[in-house]
Amino acid sequence: MLDVRDLRKEYRGAIAVDGVSFAVPAGGSLAVVGESGSGKTTCARIVTGLEKATSGTVTLHGSVQMVFQDPYQSLDRRQTVRGCLAEVLAHHGRDRSRLGELLDLVGLDRRLGDALPRQLSGGQRQRVAIARALAAEPQLLVLDEAVAALDVSIQAQILNLLVDARAATGVAYLFITHDLSVVRHVCTDVVVMSRGRVVESGPVERVLHEPEHGYTRRLVASVPRPGWVPRRAVNRD
Amino acid sequence: MTALAIPVVRRAVPFAAVICLLVVLTAILAPWIAPYDPNAIDPLNAYAPFSAAHPLGTDDLGRDLLSRLIHGSRTSLAGPLIVVVAAGTIGATLAITAAWFGGWFDALMSRALDVLFAFPGLVLAITVAALFGSGFITPVVALSVAFVPVIARVMRAAALRERNLPYIEALRVQGFGAWRICLRHLVPNLAPLLMVQAAIGFGYAMIDLASISFLGLGLQPPAADWGLMIANGQPSILAGFPQQSVTAAVAVVITVVAFTAVAERLATRFGGDVR
Amino acid sequence: MTLLQFDRLTVAVSGRPVLRRVTLDVAAGEAVGLVGESGSGKSMTVRSVMRLLPAGATVGGTVRFDGADVGALDAAGLRRMRSRDVAMVFQDPRAVVNPVRTVGDFLTEVLRDQGTGRSEATRRAAAALSEVGVGDAMRRLQQRPYELSGGLLQRVVIAAALLTGPRLILADEPTTALDTTTQEEVVAILAEQRRLRGTTLMFITHDLELAAAVCDRIAVMYAGEIVEILPAARLHSDARHPYTRALLGSRPGAVAPGERLRTVPGVPQSALTAPPGCVFADRCPHAEARCRDVRPVFTGSAACHLLEVL
Predict the structure, then answer these.
(1) Burial of B5: CB neighbours in 10 Å, binned 0-12, 13-18, 19+
(2) CB A184 to CB C210 under 8 A?
(3) CB-count burial class (<10 Å; 0-12, 13-18, 19+) for C78
(4) Nearest by CB to A68, which of B170, B175, B184?
(5) pLDDT single digits (tens) B4-15
(6) Does any CB of chain B come closer than 8 Å to the CB of residue A64?
(7) I want to staple C70 with a disulfide (CB 3.0 to 4.6 A). Which of A234, C39, C63, C136 is the partner?
(8) What are the residue boundaries of the ABC transporter domain, all occurrences included (chain A) (predicted)?
(9) Is the distance from CB of B115 to CB of B152 less than 8 angstroms?
(10) What is the mean pLDDT of residues B170-190?
(11) What ipTM was assigned to the predicted interfaces of this complex?
């Protein structure tokens, strides 16, 4: 459904994305993992049309929506939850009565409809942002570090919600993240990026358990887990 | 660091707000609350001292100074009000357009505003008034133009910050048009800052317009205008009757200080260094 | 020997409670991890050691460093403690290092202030950089912060923290802003240097697994209170407080892929909004009537009414 071919993006001579290709099937879920500066966010922004690629093609059958990292800035601070969702529903010619269903879908108390963003917690705001993105019933949802800024217990709630929402609506996910444990939980396929290039890709199970590329191996090894002993790499400067 | 850092000044802000309200009410209700016709001449009663009949006395032509001060508040407030509304509207529009489109348009406009900014507003207004004639309109228009870059520069920085927030990007991904996003989301969120800018500009515009009137390039006699009253009272000072200049000057100072104090309080409330 | 002791430390800012009766002993040479979510008071706890509390804060109880009440120190004593005995490492290294001065200036400033000669200070700064794994130290000393990556700069900050030979390091989420591979490197260096020098460490993080890897003991905080203290090695086997278990269970890695994460309903509370009884009562799956009304006493390893039952 989404097919990205040979994407390339340059900023004033610096190459941010260099020959990246990946695909997301209808209803699928693909993670793009990498560290800061790997080009993963640039890819997401090109897919959603926020930026233009220098070269390469993005083929999308259906519509795309996006959820951003910072729940504190991704909602208009003057708009109530209801106002925010109603505006989007009206814009896409959807019936206003879907508003209640949307709130239910993301697990938000309907009574919070009249709340302003500042009256909501980070997790609640992220639920509103997800509801807004799902309002137009897109075929693809791009989640750019959508749980990274949340507390652990809230992150778990939102991850469950994302799993449920995909089951309920059949929307596909393009999950941009640096957190491998999140990938393992939500996605079926993964693309590992480093310095603008794809270094490894495949099913999550295979890539995270039998990583082939040295960078992926190092990434997997650096995740804190029971019995983990942090090690100093030999001079990586 | 503003004067608001001093506790006494901060506590005086509600008092300043009351003064602002009183001045505005005075201007609106002038014809009903002024005890006399501000232009009624009574030569036999010139230079009358303070009395129950004339609380502030009379001027060289026997006109009641309180009535002139009350009527003078109308042009003295209307001038700066027009300046900040006009400059605010134009400045904010330019700023948001520049921030939204960026690129060469932004660069061109920023440079143009820098040039205009380098020109002192008061000098510009005086020059224009001298060239195109004095009166109420000419200095107000000239000063409005001079105030545009002051407001536009602050608003452009704020609009640029706002435009890059994820909520605006979310609206773009939703497929909303630039026009709608700007009008429905960007402008309302920038409005408090614009209000603060206008309130601060109001005080400056008032002093500038009073100066222009004082120099004889603004309103002409016999109009009741505070700047003009300060100028016209000058000969009387030598004659030993300073009331006219002093009361008008005090009115200007109190009003400017009150408006600026309230504006700075709003500024600290709605965030950001605004000057 | 106890180096740092929190004794019923209670902090309120403008009348709002932030910390409630925090009691914790940290032995010399020990590493203790403070783990909790936002609003739990973990930052405020370590800041109270340096008396870096916000204006309008009122403090009850005591913090003792090496036997001396920190709250009773005079200005000179406080300065001595801050510059020689205790060092802090913050989340964002860029906020700590003066952006227009060189790395060398940053590293030698305290040494020079303490009377060390210029060349000696530079030599020691270069040595400190090498110890934290920064290669080509002499060139790095000439560079300015913007020329260094976040991970590299955080190592510079750690080098600076170690330079004066402090007895205690307070690290407040020192790797949260870093990539995971860089995080591994930075915590490895921190742990290694600490063991080498016998420095005491308080390590703040929201990541239980990370704390377990770096520390000897872990104190779990919630809503301004310490709810459980346990040895890092027995984190998974011994955790008994429902909140600690909830934290462990809600990490995506805790369950098999495809399984639902065990979540805690509601949002993290702060000391201000927490219920009058047990601070976790309104989110706890096991809560009984007494949990909501009676504050549990910290006994043994946790503050919970239901330790016998669970």
Answers:
(1) exposed
(2) no
(3) middle
(4) B170
(5) 666 777 778 889
(6) yes
(7) C63
(8) 2-220
(9) no
(10) 92
(11) 0.87
A1-63+142-236 adopts what CATH topology? Answer: Rossmann fold (3.40.50)
How distant is the Cα of A73 from the closest Cα of chain B, in angstroms? 6
Question: Under CATH, which number does the domain B60-270 receive?
Answer: 1.10.3720.10
Tell how far CA B91 is from the center of its chain. 15
Residue of A nearest to C193 (CA): A232
The verdict on a CB contact (< 8 Å) between C212 and A226 is yes
CB contact under 8 A, A181 and C136: no
Residue of chain A nearest C256, judged by CA positions: A185
Query: How many Cβ pairs within 8 Å bridge chains A and C?
Result: 115
- Whose CA is closest to B84, among B211, B225, B204, B255? B204
> Would you list the domain boundaries of chain A?
1-63+142-236, 74-137
CATH code of the region C2-87+166-303: 3.40.50.300
Q: Per this entry, what is the length of chain B?
A: 275
Backbone angles phi, psi at A216, to 5 degrees: -60, -40
Residue boundaries of the structural domains of chain B: 60-270
Q: What is the pLDDT of residues A19-75, one digit of tens each?
A: 999 999 999 999 999 988 899 999 999 999 999 999 999 999 999 999 999 888 999
Q: Is A77 on the interface with B (CB under 8 A)?
A: yes
User: How many whole angstroms separate alpha carbon C148 and alpha carbon A106?
Assistant: 42
